[in-house]
From TrEMBL:
InterPro entries: HDOD, RNase_Y/CdgJ. This is Putative signal transduction protein. The lineage of its organism: Bacteria, Pseudomonadati, Pseudomonadota, Gammaproteobacteria, Chromatiales. It comes from the Bacteria. Pfam families: HDOD. Residues 7-205 form the HDOD domain.
Amino acid sequence: MRQLQSLAPLPVVAQRLLADLDRKDLSLGQLSEVIEMDPALTARIVGLANSAYFANRQPVYSVGDAVGRVLGLDMVRNLALGIVLSGPFDTKACRAFDAERFWFTAMATATLSVPLSGLVRDREPVAGEWAYLAGLLHELGLLALCALFPAEMSRVLSQREADKPLAVRTRQALGIDAMEAGALLARRWKLPEGVAVVMAHYDAPGYQGPHSQLSALVGLAACLAASLHQSQDDPELRRPWLLALGLCEDDITPLLHRSQPRVESLQALARQLAHP
């Protein structure tokens, strides 16, 4: 916990991106100017816009092109923030950490969270852009633990105990799990409240409190993302989140069918993010 709390402050680019999250008047030029303060981030955003996943026919050469022609302002801002916030964590020493799987789960969860937010019929509507950002960042605590405690987390991730969830094994090894680490990170970096709640509770469908619907929505999206990654679909695993959201299996079946053909290109996108 002390190591998490003593992490360096956010880079200037991340601070600017966070400050711009609530701005309704943010222009393409203003966002491009912030991202272009970091050449490495600029290269990654342009590279993502040129990936097969977004099926863009014309090459993208600038952040402005990526925003205006391919990704849109909200997605570029959220992707840039996700890349910058993950930047401080070098997980190479954690041999069991699968960076490609991490980014597949992050991108798939973010992507699935947006249409799921449109299905929610509760009195707490969730904006698609907030659902996307929360989905993208939900496992940031896991990334931090793998970077800070590579040997311990490598042993935890290598275990295959069916009766012990990852959170339990992590707490036994470190005294803290990825969600608790995420909550500490969110406070340290002053992330938006809704995103912080998701990072702390996305794996707890019974959570009741502020932003509980956003948390359950991202939890369901993460569950669906895992089934896409493993090519195994177990409806029982997502039942608690469906109940929490007031949804049924028929509500999400069309979304799963639409997502299946994009798995391969999403895996390629995850490789691109995992190996900059």
